[in-house]
Amino acid sequence: MEPFVVLSFLLVILAEVFFPLALGFFFVKKYKLSWKVFALGFLFFVLVQLIHAPLVLLIQQPLTDYVGRLFPDHVMAVAAYAVILGLLAGLFEELGRFIVYGRFFISNKIKLDRGNAMLFGAGWGGVESILVGVLMLLTVFSYLYAAPLTDEKISQINASMNGALTQEKADAVKQANDALMALTPYDVLPGMFERIFAITLHITWSVMVLYAVVEKRNELLVLAVMWHSFADASAVFLGQIYGFWAAEGMLFVLALSGVLYLRRRLASFKHII
């Protein structure tokens, strides 16, 4: 166990949990808003995922098999799989935002303005960040108690499981354990920036979709769906084919483009209520 790895985990967890809350606090104070809007972003993200996540789990294996048969080339198969997953994420989340704005916000007299859009986006992306941070605690505990797995230790584990651990599963467990023990701070810290980039994009898409509702410009909704789909698809594809850093680099570029979009659009944003 390396102390700096543990410190890196704790730093990332704190950032993933407290950054969205700090961002929400900033928007609430700056625009004199209610935390209710942040909570709505939190709530509706969860509601959308209650439909989206089970669907992905349901089709994952059949989709993998189908794509594998359709595209024998591994790179093409990963690309097709990434595009489908990305499109599902874009459709569910951006259409979800669109429905919430058009139905819930208007019926509850919540202003469709830039402050509420950004606060809603911070809540929407924030819940994902907080959940990732909480789940990372499990990884920390696993790392703290990780120890080298020798063949003798694996045999003991298998015996305690009445021989249920096949050689293939034993190899997978040992590989995962070895990867956990080999972690360095450079493997852990980028997760903090990934969440910051992702929240930036969720705020961007929240503003874009709200603008689509306010101006009745459905092309902005389509653009948000495509942008979101591309972000998720590129993360899956680049992560699988070129590695973690390539995916993080693309996410940074997309987040930067989101900041530029926000700077251009927010100055002229008007609300309808």
Could you explain how this protein is built, in words?
The termini are far apart. Helix content is 85%, strand content 0%. The mean pLDDT is 88. The protein has helices at 3-31, 35-70, 74-107, 114-144, 151-160, 167-181, 185-188, 190-215, 218-241, 244-265. It is built from ten helices and no strands. It is mainly alpha-helical. The protein has one domain (3-268).
**Could you tell me the mean pLDDT?**
88
Strand and helix order: HHHHHHHHHH
What is the overall silhouette? globular
Structural class computed from helices and strand pairing: mainly alpha
Count of folded domains: 1
Estimate the strand proportion: under 5%
Report the end-to-end length measured between terminal Cα atoms: 56 Å
Q: Tell how many strands the DSSP assignment holds.
A: 0
Number of helices in the DSSP assignment:
10
Radius of gyration: 21 Å
What's the story with the biggest beta sheet? none
| Low-confidence residue ranges | none
Q: What's the helical proportion of residues?
A: over 70%
How are the SSEs placed, and which strands pair?
Elements lengths: L2 H29 L3 H36 L3 H34 L6 H31 L6 H10 L6 H15 L3 H4 L1 H26 L2 H24 L2 H22 L8
Helix pairs in contact: 1-4, 1-8, 2-3, 2-4, 3-8, 3-9, 4-8, 8-9, 8-10, 9-10
List keywords for this structure.
10 helices; single chain; 85% helix; 0% strand; mainly alpha; 273 residues
